[in-house]
Amino acid sequence: xxxxxxxxxxxxxxxxVWSATARAADTDDADIVVRGEYLVRAAGCVACHTxxxxxxxxxxxxxxxxxxxxxxxxPNITPDExxxxxxxxxxxxxxxLRYGERPxxxxxxxxxxxxxxxxxxxxxxxxxxxxLFAQPPERRINTPHDLLPPFAWRWTMGVWKMLNxxxxxxxxxxxxxxxxxRGAYLVQALAHCGECHTPRDSMGAMQPDMFLAGTxxxxxxxxxPNITPDxxxxxxxxxxxxxxxxLRDGLKPNFDDVQGSMAEAIDDGLKFLTxxxxxxxxxxxxxxxxxxxxxxxxxx
Length: 300
Description:
43% helix
């Protein structure tokens, strides 16, 4: 009897340990999904992968992007196993963001901002995947891109990458504090501000010497402002508070509101960031070298 009692006690202890471990795992899973939602918002996934104009389902893709190279359509990133990313492994998801590669090895076009996402920490990439996989799957076949040659030939992106792309995470800058480094991470990697606010060359690559200086050939041919701290053509006379208000509420210091893609970026993502992260973005932007570049529509 004594041996039997001891076995029962041991079994009960084992069940208790297993239950505690399972609860801890469930808590960890819930935490990573919550964290993933925050990162998805910061990364602008909602705006790009939702065809709002045609009442599309969130993350089901189909949004059109008109560019000088043709029209791109965002893919379905819901966890549908046939038309979305439901069969992707963690490694395949990370490879898409880090290297711009599909699971079948084909190259993504840089309209998908892997050139910035590559700088993200791997744990952030995995958290984003966890959140996306926690969403309801939506069956929607991806719309093929409508591109001009040679850009219609996807293999040419391999050459493009060799010339214009260096993968790798963003290293912290020891010369700056944690707030500045967080701002750099948000601007350069997660929120990928440079993808819209930096002029591109004839091959569609960002011009590093004009980082964040604005362009008159933004998404859907929009004018995208200079957000370097130049006092004449940029945001040099803006305060840190002015930048935080714009990112949270979409209001400029003159009380004009933002329009177009930036309004979407705020409504679907940036306004959900913490005050600390908004402040970090402001600190980083105000620390950059000013670039004089007046953004205006070209004369016909």
